[in-house]
Write the structure tokens for this entry.
Amino acid sequence: MPPLKGMPDMQNQIDWLTRFMELVTITGKVEVRCAMRAPWITRYPQAGAREMPYHVVLTGTAVFENSETGASYAVQPGDIVLLPHGSAHVLHDGSGRRPKPSKVRSSGSLLVNENSGAGEPFDMLCGRFVVAAPHDRLIRSYLPLELVVRTDHLDNAPKALLQVERLNRLVALMRAEAFDDEVGGGAVLNALSSALFALTLRAAGEAGEARPGVLALAAHPRLAPAAAAMFSDPARAWTLPELAELCSMSRATFMRHFQTSLGRSAMDLLTDIRMSAAANALRNSMSSTETVADLVGYQSVSAFRRVFAQRMGVTPGDWRQLHREAAE
């Protein structure tokens, strides 16, 4: 099917996940290495605002439990656990025995949490991603409460195996930096953790097991052209028939598949993309509200102000002032 008039070939566009990562501002930091021997247990309270805890399993096996949902997963080396909503959670050895007391010590740029157990060893890196406001709203709206990427469960398709290989290489690098205690190891680990976020999202989506949300788009490749179009050109006055045509679907079929996969309509996603882009523009430039409104596809400034306030909780002017004061 030829591209829509005025629309570049979709293969030449930046993919939707790249645009998603460019839209939000996320920094990663590795904080603790947990080196335990059974029996052990570690409990994590609800994370702070805009924080997403994560864990990378290096050696051994454990049980992860989300205290908020009750979901439970067995994890093993190479597995990655991400809590996009900062949910309280627990990791333990699964034996049910009384855990041995643990203590924390410094080791180079990392803290090491270890216990006095004598059973099976377990090692993992624990850290957190911090999402700049207001993109935490986008994260909460379009990512699940917990995300567990179990690389041995990805299918045998060449694309999925490629993601496994890349994740394994990244985890191996993080493991080496954590164990070798080289100069600058902390900075390297933090840089690697930022790459970890994008690779984890991609692997989770391509595993085909993502629940409704933005990752489900990767499991439904026919919808990807519409998502890429909205992320790449949010200012365009997209219509449902145009988006459906990009996906070679009827309007009704497109609406049904998009709602089922994302849990929200295409127009909801487009509005959220526009408001996040507007928030970035208001924070990072001196452009007028009228200019920003036009930048994200609103010819009516009053309509833009109304939608921005509904989605962000403050007016565009108040948002700009808040960040100007914070910068000062």
